[in-house]
Amino acid sequence: MPIVISMLRGVNVGGHNKIKMDALRALYESLGLRDPQTYVQSGNVIFRTEERDLVRLARRIEDAIERRFGFRPYVIVRTASELRDVIARNPFATRRGLDPSKLLVGFLASDPGPEARNKVLRIKADPEELWIDGRELYLYFPHGMGRSKLPPVLDRTLKTPATARNWNSVTRMLEIAEGLESGKGCPAETKPPRRRGRRNLKGRSFSCAVGHLFLICHPERRAT
What we know:
The structure is a single chain. It contains 6 helices and 13 strands. By secondary structure, the chain is of the alpha+beta class. The chain has 2 domains: 3-82 and 170-190, Alpha-Beta Plaits; 84-166 and 193-221, no CATH class. The longest helix has 16 residues, at 54-69.
């Protein structure tokens, strides 16, 4: 049965759009989605499903969240295979000295099309760096994202819903998905590993704090 990773945008940020992860897992189970696992507090759910139409699946989840919690976040989904491909396509993989906590992957709900991609490539991002490949953006914020003007510019240019996760979170979500694929599974609520051995830009062990960042100027948020 395929493994799917869903990422909610703008959940549990600044005291708004609050959802407890145990309630979110229960909601997914009520939709017939199996073995839901959550990662930190910003709405990442990894689960099994027989649903093949992922666009329809995302809408079902959004509808259910709106009915249950009273607000409607965008839900971006990728299969485990697609997430592996995202990691394999990392254009910064061979760069030395990059901080993985400042490297983000922006997951787009749909392909923005060649015109929008060309506009993105013409954005003057310095000192930030960005690449766009299909439905993913790879963004590096050497001085952090807090004061960057790049995210809102990207939002206006791409005109498609998106949410971002930093590199450590992306690789950790794939680990959880692969645990479900292997049948080993993991605790229903998974928290970031402590600073024992981190993940480098190719997905191997590295050392860095894990946090979540959102594409549209949301602050970093860690599990509590």
